[in-house]
């Protein structure tokens, strides 16, 4: 088994200035590897949504990227309020965003559904008051 | 090495004392042409002599050209001057820009393809999409450029008026930048162009200036008007559109940032983005003569004076649009930068190596190795286009340990970068 490529990123809650930094770097790595542009775009959209969720709701998170010849995995582990009802959060249009966040164009309740739509696998685990873990998978080819 | 540092896509390496351009990364923006202190990088430009093969020649000046001369010189006067310097006729492009603006508006109103739509008129932007953002090629609005529309129109007119064949008429665009020239020679789409060549504004400027300074008792002038006059400045296209959800962006670093956001799924409620590679748009092209800010001021003045009266009948243009008069046909193929390896497993291993190498580099992007950044150098090493010992700092380490063969190690290294240029001793 060949060694997968791994890189990790730290995302700071409420840091709107640097939001999107991890997805930008990840995109560059995928393009360097010659990954199909369609896959790159799906990863970009899903990673960006995951990153924005951390920036808007959590305190901080570790985002881990893992690439094998078969798949790309994004693992996001945040410290934050957690999601009380995951099924509800997965519904399109459901949002707990504040009016300020919506004013900035965020919080349309499309975050998690968008991640699901753009990925080949999404697992969410969450503990209220502690944090949320996302495991997102994309197949290559 | 100024060119290497300024290149927005890291396409230049310095090898054996000379700058080399990596074609798969170059987006032909011309930044290197602009900064080279030795004028060693030359764009391919056309010249007058190429026109001798045509029976009839027409110059196509855009408002950028009008903005190069004194603020009180009317566009019509400049058209007449072009006829005196050797062209049989001169045909204004601003009016075609107005028609194209109407066509863009029609497209925005009648089409629900993915938003935001991106303007295709700056060839550097198209190249950038092919190389770096292939995902966004489908966002390019498929509308023909004003210079091409103008060329087609003037050929049709002259064929009709003078009974000439298309091949008898040579139509030449007066270009503000090398990118437009390259886009004519190597078009991103395979299609027939009605343009026969381009001449740099900087090349024709002196002759036209001479004629303008002598001109007295001028003959009748064509009146040039319409909002198309504003096209060469940032926001010029957008100001011709009614949609409020339109943006105008310029400068490659900003453009790349915005394209990155679009890739992330943002800006979907923006209708149209006018994009320019040059920070001040076309008046700042590398082949212009006048100070770009002065030129911008003159364009604004022209728009103020002649912009309010349209030069086209909107309804007529709409009918032409319906007949697909403005449609750009054919797809543009993506042309991404070469990946680390065509085999994904090998590419992943090379990515490991790239990061390992980058770790031991000083990360101050000194450029001493001939690559613009430590990261691009690490990539060059992994791709087999450079060796680790070309890093000046790593060479110094070798220098320390090889006290015996010191000079040889240093000279070997330094020759790789400077070629055979002799370095003299400093004497006071």
Overview of the structural elements:
By secondary structure, chain A is of the alpha+beta class. Chain A has helices spanning 21-32, 37-57, 86-89, 99-103, 111-118; strands at residues 5-12, 60-67, 71-79, 121-127, 131-139. Chain A has one domain: Histidine kinase-like ATPase, C-terminal domain (Heat Shock Protein 90, 2-Layer Sandwich). A five-stranded antiparallel sheet of chain A has the order 1-2-3-5-4, with helices on one face. Chain A starts with a strand and ends with a strand. A four-stranded parallel sheet of chain B has the order 4-3-6-7. In chain B, strands 5-9-8 form a three-stranded parallel sheet, with helices on one face. By secondary structure, chain B is of the alpha/beta class. Helix content of chain B is 41%, strand content 9%. Chain B is globular, with a radius of gyration of 25 Å. The longest helix of chain B has 17 residues, at 94-110. Classes of the chains: A alpha+beta (141), B alpha/beta (428). Chain A binds chain B through residues 2-5, 7, 20, 23-24, 27, 29, 31-35, 37-38, 40-41, 44-45, 48-49, 67-69, 105, 114, 140, and chain B through 132, 134-135, 260-261, 263-266, 334, 336-337, 339-342, 344-345, 347-349, 351-352, 354-355, 379.
What gross morphology of chain A would you assign? globular
Task: Compute the number of helices of chain B.
Answer: 16
| Number of E-type strands of chain B | 9
Shape of chain B: globular
Structural class of chain A: alpha+beta
What distance separates the N and C termini of chain B?
Answer: 27 Å
Helix and strand sequence of chain A: EHHEEHHHEE
What are its keywords?
heterodimer, A: 141 residues, alpha+beta, Heat Shock Protein 90, 5 helices, 5 strands, globular, B: 428 residues, alpha/beta, Alpha-Beta Plaits, 3-methyladenine DNA Glycosylase II, Chain A, domain 3, 3 domains, four-stranded parallel beta sheet, three-stranded parallel beta sheet, 41% helix, 9% strand
């Amino acid at each position: 088994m060949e060694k997968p490529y791994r890189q990790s990123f730290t995302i700071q809650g409420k840091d709107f200035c640097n939001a999107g930094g991890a997805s930008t770097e990840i995109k560059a790595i995928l393009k360097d590897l010659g990954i199909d542009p369609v896959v790159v775009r799906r990863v970009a959209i899903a990673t960006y949504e995951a990153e924005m969720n951390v920036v808007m709701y959590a305190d901080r998170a570790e985002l881990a990227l893992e690439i094998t010849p078969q798949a790309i995995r994004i693992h996001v582990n945040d410290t934050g309020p957690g999601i009380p009802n995951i099924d509800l959060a997965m519904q399109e249009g459901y949002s707990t965003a504040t009016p300020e966040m919506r004013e900035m164009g965020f919080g349309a309740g499309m975050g998690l559904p968008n991640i699901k739509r753009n990925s080949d696998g999404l697992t969410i685990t969450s503990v209220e008051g502690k944090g949320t873990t996302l495991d997102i998978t994309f197949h290559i080819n | 090495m100024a060119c290497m540092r300024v290149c927005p896509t890291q396409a230049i390496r310095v090898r054996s004392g000379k700058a080399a351009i990596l074609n798969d990364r170059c987006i032909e923006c011309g930044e290197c042409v602009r900064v080279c202190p030795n004028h060693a990088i030359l764009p391919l430009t056309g010249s007058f002599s190429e026109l001798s093969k045509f029976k009839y020649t027409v110059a196509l000046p855009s408002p950028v050209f009008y903005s190069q001369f004194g603020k009180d010189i009317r566009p019509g006067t400049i058209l007449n001057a072009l006829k005196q310097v050797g062209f049989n006729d001169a045909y204004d492009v601003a009016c075609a820009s107005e028609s194209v603006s109407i066509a863009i508006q029609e497209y925005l109103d009648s089409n629900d393809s993915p938003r935001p739509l991106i303007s295709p008129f700056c060839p550097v932007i198209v190249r950038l999409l092919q190389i770096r953002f292939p995902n966004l090629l489908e966002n390019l609005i498929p509308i023909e450029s004003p210079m091409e529309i103008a060329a087609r129109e003037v050929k049709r007119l002259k064929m009709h008026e003078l009974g000439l064949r298309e091949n008898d008429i040579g139509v030449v665009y007066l270009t503000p930048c090398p990118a437009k020239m390259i886009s004519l020679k190597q078009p991103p789409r395979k299609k027939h162009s009605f343009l026969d060549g381009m001449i740099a504004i900087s090349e024709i400027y002196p002759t036209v200036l001479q004629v303008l300074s002598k001109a007295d008792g001028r003959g009748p002038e064509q009146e040039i008007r319409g909002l198309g006059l504003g096209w060469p400045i940032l926001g010029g296209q957008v100001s011709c559109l009614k949609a409020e959800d339109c943006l105008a962006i310029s400068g490659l670093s900003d453009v790349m940032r915005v394209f990155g956001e679009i890739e992330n799924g943002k800006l979907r409620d923006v209708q149209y983005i006018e994009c320019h590679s040059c920070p001040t748009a076309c008046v700042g092209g590398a082949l212009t003569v006048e100070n770009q800010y002065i030129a911008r001021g003159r364009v604004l003045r022209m728009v103020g004076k002649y912009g309010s009266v349209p030069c086209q009948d909107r309804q007529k243009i709409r009918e032409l649009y319906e007949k697909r008069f403005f449609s750009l046909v054919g797809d543009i193929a993506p042309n991404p930068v070469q990946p680390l390896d065509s085999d994904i497993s090998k590419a992943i291993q090379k990515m490991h190596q790239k990061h390992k190498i980058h770790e031991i580099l000083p990360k101050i992007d000194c450029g001493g190795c001939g690559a613009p950044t430590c990261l691009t150098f690490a990539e060059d090493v992994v791709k087999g286009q450079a060796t680790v010992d070309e890093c000046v700092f790593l060479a110094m380490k070798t220098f320390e340990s090889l006290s015996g063969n010191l000079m040889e190690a240093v000279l070997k290294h330094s020759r790789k970068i400077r070629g055979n240029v002799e370095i003299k001793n400093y004497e006071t």
